[in-house]
Amino acid sequence: MNNQRDWIEYILKWPSWIKGSIGLVTLIIGFVILFRNNLYLSITISIAVTLLTVFCYTIYLAFSKKESTILGAGRVYRFPRYRNIALIVMAIILVLVVILLANSSSQAFVFVTFVGTPTPNNKLNLPSPCEISLQLSVPSATPIPDDKLQIESLIRNEAQAVLDRDISKIMTLFRSDSVIQGIKGDTLADEWKGCSSISNHYQVIFEYFVSLEHKIITLDIDGDSATATTFTEGDYYVSSNSMESKAWASYEPHLVHGTTTEKWRFVKDAGIWRVITFIYGLP
Questions:
Q1: Taking the complete model, does pTM exceed 0.70, yes or no?
Q2: Per residue in 243-258, pLDDT tens?
Q3: Distance separating alpha carbons of residues 38 and 49, to the nearest angstrom
């Protein structure tokens, strides 16, 4: 019992900066463990807590005062030897904070921390939604054994995900290098390449469709690659200010007739079929 009391008294006699440092490290470890499923949040909180703690320490070192031992001298700085160093560190921290707030990469990192997706101008090399899905997706415990059935299911899932406004589901159907093209007449009217661009495209068209169905005309499978031709039927809402949605209504307002066809190209990665190319508006 006495040994325990001696240890407690010994620890209480430690300098405040040592006890504070131990508390900071313990706090950071706690945040990392608590938010281990959100790496971005763990890193953001750890950096913020560290900078704030060091800044508070430097304020204390730079401006803390005590009564002078010399009679009539008044109050003097408690740590005159370290005051200049503390002021320099304070200035460095303030400059570092300004740089982090102004930098697009750190802004994107914080945006992902609290929102969950990169900003449109994200220049940080963060994995995009479909890249994450490609890394994490594994064959189902009860996979569909027939490639034809898998691809037919993929095509149906794409249409259903549009109706559900489910961008996460959409992104699991594509690869990071997938391409979507829109044809108007004999010319290429629009093109979306890669996860971010495809995600933006779908989030625009989510607003319009009320019903949507791709009807398969042909489906050809050759090993780990496949192609399909479909035509689409459905209804959608046309905004009077949206020229993009009106382009879908070339033949009759509010109705997708199936007067044009779509060309799909698929590849199979680790047993999972994904869309590599989707072209719509073909004759």
A1: no
A2: 444 444 433 444 455 5
A3: 17
